[in-house]
Specification:
Elements lengths: L17 E5 L6 H10 L5 E5 L5 H4 L4 H18 L3 E7 L10 H18 L4 E8 L2 E4 L2
Parallel strand pairs: 1-2, 1-3, 3-4
Antiparallel strand pairs: 4-5
The chain binds zinc ion.
Length: 137
């Protein structure tokens, strides 16, 4: 291998403040990171999936749900997060023309899927809009 870039990364294994599930839509990256920091979540395992909650609540195929649940279990095994945050967002390509309430409903359903699999976790639901982040209740 040829070294192309030098950077000293942390070598110690960490304990994650949370496992975060969001879409890979980069428009919300800064808002999500600032929101998490505001909530005291600095070190986290970030599972980015197009459509985020959809892969758990209404997957195109059942294997998608299992794959995401396996990622969450891997996060728990390696980094012991005690909470999972699920974020959906406005104008998501996985939900073309779908009302916000429907997307929010999927976030709540996804939380139920996670809790059914990992009942010891605290699961929190959020929706990122272009003006900030909202709690889904
Ligand atoms: Zn999206």
């Amino acid at each position: 291998m040829d070294k192309l870039f030098h950077f000293d990364s942390q070598q110690e294994v960490y304990t994650a403040d949370a496992c975060v599930i969001s879409c890979f839509d980069a428009r919300f990256d800064v808002a999500i990171r600032k929101f998490l920091k505001r909530r005291g979540i600095v070190t986290f395992d970030h599972i980015k999936i197009p459509g985020s909650a959809k892969s758990l609540a209404a997957p195109e195929c059942p294997e998608d749900r299992d794959f995401v649940l396996r990622m969450i279990r891997t996060s728990i095994r390696l980094h012991q997060p005690r909470r999972v945050l699920i974020l959906a967002h406005q104008d998501c390509g996985a939900y073309p023309g779908v009302a916000v309430d429907v997307v929010a409903g999927d976030v709540v359903r996804a939380a139920g899927v996670i809790l059914a699999s990992e009942p010891s976790l605290a699961v929190e639901c959020f929706f990122a809009d272009f003006d900030g982040i909202y709690r889904v209740v």
